[in-house]
């Protein structure tokens, strides 16, 4: 049930996600609308304990309000040395309305504090993974399809790159010798948690 028509509504207020969805859906001839196109829809309180719970809450709240099928994305960064944090709290790690920059600072600070005293002078601070859960929800039936993806890398103290968004400049991919923020949109889509989740969702939609 890929929503019919030439528009797909994504229940997000994140401009970085919007760009990635636009890039992914353009080849399918679908234009992306986001919460920037529906300013009347109130913020969804993301109080779930899993990415799936939060994605479903965003999808249902927005889909029911609009009476149209919507796609929602809940995603985040899970850092091994921090026992999986910030996880579902990634967006507000440094506070309720934290900027990407503030969240990145807090993450590096915590990891560097933790590493103090260790003899390793390594810029790679901890293994980590990005995780994304997508939900496509249809308010006409109440039904939804869920798909997830993840990608493994390392948190680096040597931040680099200006592409992408969020924690991308800190997320180092050893096999590329680059951070996620140094990849092109095509490259990021090919390996990212969101790219993987989108491919999984597509596979579930087209039997
Ligand atoms: O590809 C990514 N590259 C870098 N960082 C990323 C990525 N994907 C998620 N992240 C980080 C950003 C944010 O700190 C959190 C998502 O939080 P999340 O609640 O899903 O999104 P959000 O609040 O920015 O927008 P919205 O809820 O309106 O979709 O994880
Ligand atoms: Mg959010």
UniProtKB/TrEMBL annotation:
<feature type="binding site">
    <location>
        <begin position="165"/>
        <end position="168"/>
    </location>
    <ligand>
        <name>substrate</name>
    </ligand>
</feature>
<feature type="active site" description="Proton acceptor">
    <location>
        <position position="74"/>
    </location>
</feature>
<protein>
    <recommendedName>
        <fullName>dITP/XTP pyrophosphatase</fullName>
        <ecNumber>3.6.1.66</ecNumber>
    </recommendedName>
</protein>
<keyword id="KW-0547">Nucleotide-binding</keyword>
<dbReference type="GO" id="GO:0036220">
    <property type="term" value="F:ITP diphosphatase activity"/>
</dbReference>
<dbReference type="GO" id="GO:0009146">
    <property type="term" value="P:purine nucleoside triphosphate catabolic process"/>
</dbReference>
<dbReference type="GO" id="GO:0036222">
    <property type="term" value="F:XTP diphosphatase activity"/>
</dbReference>
<dbReference type="InterPro" id="IPR029001">
    <property type="entry name" value="ITPase-like_fam"/>
</dbReference>
<feature type="binding site">
    <location>
        <begin position="12"/>
        <end position="17"/>
    </location>
    <ligand>
        <name>substrate</name>
    </ligand>
</feature>
<dbReference type="Pfam" id="PF01725">
    <property type="entry name" value="Ham1p_like"/>
</dbReference>
<keyword id="KW-0378">Hydrolase</keyword>
<comment type="subunit">
    <text>Homodimer.</text>
</comment>
<feature type="binding site">
    <location>
        <begin position="193"/>
        <end position="194"/>
    </location>
    <ligand>
        <name>substrate</name>
    </ligand>
</feature>
<dbReference type="GO" id="GO:0009117">
    <property type="term" value="P:nucleotide metabolic process"/>
</dbReference>
<keyword id="KW-0460">Magnesium</keyword>
<dbReference type="GO" id="GO:0035870">
    <property type="term" value="F:dITP diphosphatase activity"/>
</dbReference>
<feature type="binding site">
    <location>
        <position position="188"/>
    </location>
    <ligand>
        <name>substrate</name>
    </ligand>
</feature>
<dbReference type="GO" id="GO:0046872">
    <property type="term" value="F:metal ion binding"/>
</dbReference>
<feature type="binding site">
    <location>
        <position position="74"/>
    </location>
    <ligand>
        <name>Mg(2+)</name>
    </ligand>
</feature>
<feature type="binding site">
    <location>
        <position position="75"/>
    </location>
    <ligand>
        <name>substrate</name>
    </ligand>
</feature>
<comment type="similarity">
    <text>Belongs to the HAM1 NTPase family.</text>
</comment>
<dbReference type="InterPro" id="IPR002637">
    <property type="entry name" value="RdgB/HAM1"/>
</dbReference>
<keyword id="KW-0479">Metal-binding</keyword>
<keyword id="KW-0546">Nucleotide metabolism</keyword>
<dbReference type="InterPro" id="IPR020922">
    <property type="entry name" value="dITP/XTP_pyrophosphatase"/>
</dbReference>
<dbReference type="GO" id="GO:0017111">
    <property type="term" value="F:ribonucleoside triphosphate phosphatase activity"/>
</dbReference>
<dbReference type="GO" id="GO:0000166">
    <property type="term" value="F:nucleotide binding"/>
</dbReference>
<comment type="function">
    <text>Pyrophosphatase that catalyzes the hydrolysis of nucleoside triphosphates to their monophosphate derivatives, with a high preference for the non-canonical purine nucleotides XTP (xanthosine triphosphate), dITP (deoxyinosine triphosphate) and ITP. Seems to function as a house-cleaning enzyme that removes non-canonical purine nucleotides from the nucleotide pool, thus preventing their incorporation into DNA/RNA and avoiding chromosomal lesions.</text>
</comment>
<dbReference type="GO" id="GO:0005829">
    <property type="term" value="C:cytosol"/>
</dbReference>
